[in-house]
Specification:
Length: 347
């Protein structure tokens, strides 16, 4: 067989192979593969075109023409198949059953403590209070000294403190043990009269049980003006708790001690279950303990930069978890940070 005929035969054979292969191709990826296999740089076809340089001019023309027309044919074939494959779709696989119930979307919601905090903030803003904020990593001055608790003061032992490593030995760094630091922070930058609450996270270095956690929340209140008195405190507190528990709440104050208030009180509300008659929730006393309060000690005003004796104010610090527990009848403070969705989902 002449060289020319051999080449022609090879070209025709390639064409046949390509026809069958394209016929069988089932998807666009396969077509792209075939394109490389039959017409790519390393294909037999291109190999044959290279061999043309060894044949006579006459032969070159004939074989060249054939090669060209075969090339165009294969290209067209691939193109058409590619088009038909990408436009065809499997009706069975694409079938949509509109009667299948939709997937259940899991919906998130606010944490019970966040809800309580929002609720408290709403009630107080409706009474003309501002919401204030302060750092959780605090210095000794704002957490203790300015609140009338100097370094050697025994009252410092009332709160078990997480001390952080600090360079400054004179004013060490702590995780704040109460929200009372915000009293100082706020007064350093604002002048009376004002009324604020400051909800926030606090830390105590103590073992946890059903009523104690190392990390919990308080909300501080501070109202300062020329003639703020205990009557104002009782009225604001009574209004707030009645709104919060959505029922008429009575309040009671008992003498107590805090370095930052004078006089200081322990604050109780009438039992939210029995209203004061006595039940298991209030251990039959009719009252529930809420937290500490009092009239701001003048030393605290002075430490914040106010003149002694010019202003009067009341303050309190109540536990947020305690209020949430009373409102939702939760029996263990550790639920809040447990991460247990069975608990969280109930709110
Ligand atoms: N800071 C106190 C504590 O965490 C609570 C407290 C008591 C805050 C009396 C006050 C207050 O503002 O007047 O134990």
């Amino acid at each position: 067989m002449t060289n020319e005929n051999m080449l022609k035969e090879k070209i025709v054979k390639i064409k046949q192979e390509a026809l069958t292969a394209v016929e069988k191709a089932k998807n666009v990826e396969e077509i792209l593969q075939l394109e490389i296999q039959f017409l790519g740089r390393k294909s037999d076809f291109v190999g044959i075109l290279r061999q043309l340089k060894d044949v006579s001019v006459e032969e070159k023309r004939e074989v060249g023409q054939l090669a060209n027309s075969v090339k165009v044919e294969i290209q067209t074939l691939l193109e058409e198949k590619k088009k038909s494959l990408s436009s065809s779709f499997d009706a069975q696989a694409e079938k949509i059953d509109v009667t299948i119930p939709a997937l259940k979307m899991r919906q998130g919601h606010l944490h019970p403590l966040t809800k309580i905090q929002n609720e408290i903030e709403d009630i107080f803003t409706s009474m003309g209070f501002e919401i204030a904020d302060g750092p959780e990593v605090e210095d000794e001055f704002h957490n203790f000294d300015a609140l009338n608790m100097p370094k050697d003061h025994p009252a410092r032992d009332m709160q078990d403190t997480f001390w952080l490593k600090s360079e400054n030995k004179k004013n060490r760094i702590v995780l704040r043990t109460h929200t009372s630091n915000v009293q100082i922070r706020y007064m350093e930058t604002h002048q009376p009269p004002f009324r604020i609450i400051a909800p926030g996270r606090i830390y105590r270095n103590e073992a946890s049980d059903s009523t104690h956690e190392h990390t919990f929340h308080q909300f501080e209140a501070l109202v300062v003006g020329d003639e703020i008195n205990v009557g104002n405190f009782k009225f604001v507190a009574q209004q707030f708790f009645s709104k919060f528990f959505k029922k008429e709440i009575q309040i009671r104050i008992r003498p107590s001690f805090f370095p930052f208030t004078e006089p200081s009180f322990e604050f109780d509300i009438s039992c939210t279950i029995c209203g004061g008659k006595g039940c298991s929730a209030c251990k039959n006393v009719g009252w529930l303990e809420i937290g500490g309060a009092g009239m701001v000690n003048q030393n605290v005003f002075v430490a914040s930069g106010y003149p002694r004796g010019k202003y009067q104010g009341f303050a309190w610090g109540f536990g947020l978890e305690r209020l949430a527990m009373m409102k939702y009848k939760i029996d263990d403070i550790r639920h809040f940070h447990s991460g247990d969705l069975r608990f969280i989902k109930q709110f």
